Amino acid sequence: MELEFAGVIWEWRGPAPYHFVSVPEDECDQLAETAAAVTYGWGMIPVAVQVGATRWTTSLWPKDGGYVVPLKDKVRRAEELELGQEIRVRLTVDV
To answer: SS3 breakdown of the chain: % helix, strand, coil, rounded to 5?
Structure first.
């Protein structure tokens, strides 16, 4: 399954701050249809992500009935991404 969408980068300010992009509702609905087949626990969904020219593997985190894509500092630096910026995200879920 491949999904592509635009989203705004936001920051979670916990003990270990992290940056995310929320997956839009329509794409979350599609993910929910396959989640049971691919999740490895706590609702996490393993994915390959591409932003710009940078591609990496991670897991979508469930949040408030949807999912969020974690953005590693390494990725943000490589693509010169900033808090509040809207970006295009491509997700690949191996089903």
So the answer is: 20, 50, 30
